[in-house]
Amino acid sequence: MPLVHETDYGTPASTSETMVTLTIDGSQVTVPEGTSVMRASMDAGIEIPKLCATDMMDAFGSCRLCLVEIEGRAGLPASCTTPVAPGMVVSTQTNRLKDVRRGVMELYISDHPLDCLTCAANGDCELQDMAGAVGLRDVRYGYDGDNHVKARNNGDLNLKWAPKDESNPYFTFDPAKCIVCSRCVRACEEVQGTFALTIEGRGFNSRVSAGMHEDFISSECVSCGACVQACPTATLIEKSVIEIGQPEHSVVTTCAYCGVGCSFKAEMRGEELVRMVPWKDGQANRGHSCVKGRFAYGYSSHKDRILNPMIREKITDPWREVTWDEAFAHVASEFRRIQYQYGRDSVGGITSSRCTNEETYLVQKLVRAGFRNNNVDTCARVCHSPTGYGLGQAFGTSAGTQNFDSVEKSDVVVIIGANPTDGHPVFASRLKKRLRQGAKLIVIDPRRIDIVRTPHVEASYHLPLKPGTNVAILTSLAHVIVTEGLFNEAFIRERCDWSEFEDWASFVAEPHHSPEASEKFTGVPADIVRGAARLYATGGNGAIYYGLGVTEHSQGSTTVMAIANLAMVTGNIGRPGVGVNPLRGQNNVQGSCDMGSFPHELPGYRHISDDATRDIFEKLWGVEISNEPGLRIPNMLDAAVDGTFKGLYVQGEDILQSDPDTKHVAAGLAAMECVVVHDLFLNETANYAHVFLPGSSFLEKDGTFTNAERRINRVRKVMSPRNGYADWEVTQKMAQAMGLAWNYTHPSEIMDEIAATTPSFALVSYDYLDQVGSVQWPCNEAHPQGSPIMHVDGFVRGKGKFIRTEYVATDERTGPRFPLLLTTGRILSQYNVGAQTRRTENVVWHPEDRLEIHSHDAEQRGIRDGDWIKLMSRSGDTTLRALITDRVAPGVVYTTFHHPDTQANVITTDFSDWATNCPEYKVTAVQVSPSNGPTDWQRDYDEQARQSRRIASKLEPAE
C-alpha cells in the first residue's frame, strides 16, 4: 500500500449553513459562508502556494506566498485570511502573483541551508515543494552556510548562534532550518493548549524558543508532537526519520493506549515502523495526538518481548521454550485434567481491555463453549463496572451519552474523579480549547489536577473533597438545585417518571443533605458547593466527564447514579454539549464490556439467565450454556486459596500489578495448578504462570477497538506478527486443541458473528467501517448511521429513573495507626501498569512512582522532598520517594502505579463497590514514615520475580 496522503485545505472548514458562490480562475465554486478563499480554491481543485497555513489551525497570514488578486480590490490579499463573498472573482495565477511569490520564496531560501540531498526531510519538505510550485530556479542573494541563527564572526560564535536541540528523546529542533512561520507555536497553543513555545526576538532576529531559553526537555513541552507535525521543514523532525529515512507506505490504524481511540497513520519502510502520524480524518482525535500514541510504540520491538511459547512444571522452575503445538497440547491437557479432577467450574479466563473486540469475544466464547462455565471476567470490571450498572439503572444503557465533538457545544463542564490532561490528553486539548473560548469549568477532585489552573484556563470552582465522599458532594449539589428551584421541570415531566422524581427530590431536599451539613464529611466549604450547583444548573449546556475517581469506590455505582440524577434534573441529556461521559482508561475498556466479558452477561449486556439470549448463542455455537453467573476475579482468587479453582487463562492483563491487595492476588495465583499468561512480556502475573503464550502488538493484527464514546474503530495490521500469530489466532488454536471446531480465517468473520448476535452491533462490518471510517453503537436498523448522541428522543429504558443516593461512609477509616488517606492515579507519560511505556523513552519523564504529600504532613514526620519513605496500610507496606506538594490537602497522599518495584497495590485493600465488586482503589487509610530502603516484602518480591524470569535456553553455561 502506498503512502496515504491527506489533503491540507489550508484553513479550517466553516460550520455555517449559509452557502456562498464565487468564481476562482474562471470556475464557479459554492462553499459555506466564512470559508477562506484558500480553502474555496482547494474545493475547486486549485492549490494556492502556502507555508504558514494549515487546516489544523486558524489562518495566520504571515508567509505571503498565498497572495491572490480579487477583482475590484486593491493590493494582493492573503487567501488564507480573506473570507469568500458572494460574486467574488479571484485570480490565483497571474504574472504579478508569480513575480511576488518568487521574490518571497527567494528571501526564504536565501536564509535556509541548501542541504536538501542530505536533509532528513528531503521528499517531505513543504519549503522544497513550494520552491518548485512558484518556479524558483535561482537565488540572487548569496548563502555561505551562515544564517540569522547560525552566524560566525572570524571563526568565533557570535550572540546569534543557536545550537541544535536534541534533548527530547523523540525529535530534534534545528533552528538553522527554521523559517519562523509560527506553525509550531500556533499548534502548541491552538491544538495542544500547552503554550510551551514562543517566538522570541523581532524582525530578522526572530526565532522559536521553548520557554525561557530552555531546551525542549526542560520546558513545559508535553511532547504531543503537534509542533513536529506542523513544521513545514526539517526544523522539527522525528529522530526515527533521521535514522531510518522517509517512509514509503502507510496504513491507517487505531492507537492502543487510552480510551480516546485516536486514529494514526503508521508510516513504514518495509516492515519497519518509521513514525506514527495522527490521522486528520480520525473522528475521535481530529488529527491530534499525545506523547504515548505519537511516539511510545517502541515496546513492540523491545528486547524484552517474548516471541516463543514457554512452559514449566512449577513456578520455581526456569522457563523452557517449546513449539506452539506443544504449548497448545499442554494447555488443553492440563485444563482437561483439572476439570476432571476438580470439576467443571475449577477453571476460568480473563479477557483484556487492550486486545481487540474480536479477541475478547473469542476468550469469553472459549470459556463458555470450551470450559462450559461462565468464569470470565475483565479488568474493565476492576475499573468501570459501576458505569455499566449505574447508567444501566438510570438510562437503560451502559455507556457514555456523547461523542467527543460534543464538548465543542458545552457551556459548563464538570470533571469529577478524572484527570484528562494526564489520562486522556487529546480529549483534554479539545476541552481546553473550548474553555479558552469561554466555557466554564467545575472540578471535583481531592487533588488539584493540572486543568484546575493551566495557561489560559482556570476552573470556576474546584471542590477538593475528602476521598470517599463523592456521593455526599453530588447529593449536596442536587439539594441546591432542587431547593432553589433550578431543576428543568419540562424535561423531567416529559422524559422521566414524575413520581420517582418527587420521591428523589424530597430525599435530596432533606436538611442533612445540604452543603452546610455535608461539609463535615466532604471538607468542601458550603458556599463553593452552592456556587458550583448554580453554575451547572443555569450555565447553559452542562456536560459531566468522570473517571476512575468515581467508579473505584465502595459507592462507585451509587456515585454514577448520582451523576445521572444531576444530568436528568437539569435536562442535560440528549443533545450536543451535554450528557454523562465516562472517560475510559484503556483503549478497549468499552469494547471488552460490550463483548460479554462479565460472568453474568453475554455480549450486549444481556444477562446470562435470559433464556432467549442464551438460545441465540447455543444455536450458533452448538453447545449448552450455563444459566448461572460465574466467578469474578476476586472470587476466582478466593476459590483458588480454598482449593477449588485451579486453572486460569489470562489474555493481555497483569492482575498481579493492577488488581488490589497484591498479596491476596499472589496467594491465589500460587495456589493454582495451571496459569496461562498470554502477553507481550513476562509481566508480574507471569511470575506465577506455568504456560506463557507470546502475544502480538496492535501493529501486528486486524480487528476493532471501541473507545469511550462507543466509537468502533478499525485496527489494521501494519506488520507481520513477530511471534507468528495474532492473538485471536492463538485463542482459536487453543480452542481447537480443546476440541472446538473453530475455523475463522480472518477477524472480519468474528465481527460478522458479533453483529449477528449483538443488537447494538447489528449493522457493523469491516466493509462498512472501511467505508465510513468509524461508527458509534448502537448501529442497527433503528440507527443505521450509528449514534453519536444517545437518548435524543427518549431514554433507552423508556423513562429516565431517579434513584436515591444515600451517602454511606466507606469501611476503610482513618485512625491513630493509619491517619492519612491514600488515593491513586496516572501520569501523562505512563500507561496503566507501565508494561509498554516503561519500555520506551517515556521513562525520561517518569522513572519512578513517587508519593505526593502535603508539606504539613511531611514536616510532622520529618520527611523532606526526595526522601525515601515507607507507605503502610492494613494490607501491606512498600517504599518509594516523597514529593512534597500542595496539590494534595493535608491528610491526603497520592501516588501512581506504573512501576512494579513500587507495587502500590500491595497497599490497597479488598473493599469494593457494593453492586459490582469494583475495587476501592481510591480510598486507603495509610501511615507514612521515613525509610532506609526497601521493605522485606519488596526484597522478597524482587528475588521471586528474578528467579521466575529465568529461561532455560537462555541461561549462561555453568562455569
From TrEMBL:
<keyword id="KW-0004">4Fe-4S</keyword>
<keyword id="KW-0560">Oxidoreductase</keyword>
<dbReference type="InterPro" id="IPR019574">
    <property type="entry name" value="NADH_UbQ_OxRdtase_Gsu_4Fe4S-bd"/>
</dbReference>
<dbReference type="GO" id="GO:0051537">
    <property type="term" value="F:2 iron, 2 sulfur cluster binding"/>
</dbReference>
<dbReference type="GO" id="GO:0003954">
    <property type="term" value="F:NADH dehydrogenase activity"/>
</dbReference>
<feature type="region of interest" description="Disordered">
    <location>
        <begin position="927"/>
        <end position="959"/>
    </location>
</feature>
<dbReference type="GO" id="GO:0016020">
    <property type="term" value="C:membrane"/>
</dbReference>
<feature type="domain" description="4Fe-4S His(Cys)3-ligated-type">
    <location>
        <begin position="96"/>
        <end position="135"/>
    </location>
</feature>
<dbReference type="Pfam" id="PF10588">
    <property type="entry name" value="NADH-G_4Fe-4S_3"/>
</dbReference>
<feature type="compositionally biased region" description="Basic and acidic residues">
    <location>
        <begin position="937"/>
        <end position="946"/>
    </location>
</feature>
<feature type="domain" description="4Fe-4S Mo/W bis-MGD-type">
    <location>
        <begin position="248"/>
        <end position="304"/>
    </location>
</feature>
<dbReference type="GO" id="GO:0022904">
    <property type="term" value="P:respiratory electron transport chain"/>
</dbReference>
<dbReference type="Pfam" id="PF13510">
    <property type="entry name" value="Fer2_4"/>
</dbReference>
<keyword id="KW-0677">Repeat</keyword>
<dbReference type="GO" id="GO:0046872">
    <property type="term" value="F:metal ion binding"/>
</dbReference>
<comment type="similarity">
    <text>In the C-terminal section; belongs to the prokaryotic molybdopterin-containing oxidoreductase family.</text>
</comment>
<dbReference type="InterPro" id="IPR006963">
    <property type="entry name" value="Mopterin_OxRdtase_4Fe-4S_dom"/>
</dbReference>
<dbReference type="Pfam" id="PF12838">
    <property type="entry name" value="Fer4_7"/>
</dbReference>
<dbReference type="Pfam" id="PF04879">
    <property type="entry name" value="Molybdop_Fe4S4"/>
</dbReference>
<dbReference type="InterPro" id="IPR036010">
    <property type="entry name" value="2Fe-2S_ferredoxin-like_sf"/>
</dbReference>
<dbReference type="InterPro" id="IPR041924">
    <property type="entry name" value="Formate_Dh-H_N"/>
</dbReference>
<keyword id="KW-0411">Iron-sulfur</keyword>
<dbReference type="GO" id="GO:1990204">
    <property type="term" value="C:oxidoreductase complex"/>
</dbReference>
<comment type="similarity">
    <text>Belongs to the complex I 75 kDa subunit family.</text>
</comment>
<keyword id="KW-0408">Iron</keyword>
<feature type="domain" description="4Fe-4S ferredoxin-type">
    <location>
        <begin position="169"/>
        <end position="200"/>
    </location>
</feature>
<keyword id="KW-0479">Metal-binding</keyword>
<dbReference type="GO" id="GO:0015942">
    <property type="term" value="P:formate metabolic process"/>
</dbReference>
<dbReference type="InterPro" id="IPR009010">
    <property type="entry name" value="Asp_de-COase-like_dom_sf"/>
</dbReference>
<dbReference type="InterPro" id="IPR017900">
    <property type="entry name" value="4Fe4S_Fe_S_CS"/>
</dbReference>
<dbReference type="InterPro" id="IPR017896">
    <property type="entry name" value="4Fe4S_Fe-S-bd"/>
</dbReference>
<feature type="domain" description="4Fe-4S ferredoxin-type">
    <location>
        <begin position="212"/>
        <end position="241"/>
    </location>
</feature>
<dbReference type="InterPro" id="IPR006657">
    <property type="entry name" value="MoPterin_dinucl-bd_dom"/>
</dbReference>
<dbReference type="Pfam" id="PF00384">
    <property type="entry name" value="Molybdopterin"/>
</dbReference>
<feature type="domain" description="2Fe-2S ferredoxin-type">
    <location>
        <begin position="18"/>
        <end position="96"/>
    </location>
</feature>
<dbReference type="Pfam" id="PF01568">
    <property type="entry name" value="Molydop_binding"/>
</dbReference>
<keyword id="KW-0001">2Fe-2S</keyword>
<dbReference type="GO" id="GO:0008863">
    <property type="term" value="F:formate dehydrogenase (NAD+) activity"/>
</dbReference>
<dbReference type="GO" id="GO:0051539">
    <property type="term" value="F:4 iron, 4 sulfur cluster binding"/>
</dbReference>
<dbReference type="InterPro" id="IPR001041">
    <property type="entry name" value="2Fe-2S_ferredoxin-type"/>
</dbReference>
<dbReference type="GO" id="GO:0043546">
    <property type="term" value="F:molybdopterin cofactor binding"/>
</dbReference>
<dbReference type="InterPro" id="IPR006478">
    <property type="entry name" value="Formate_DH_asu"/>
</dbReference>
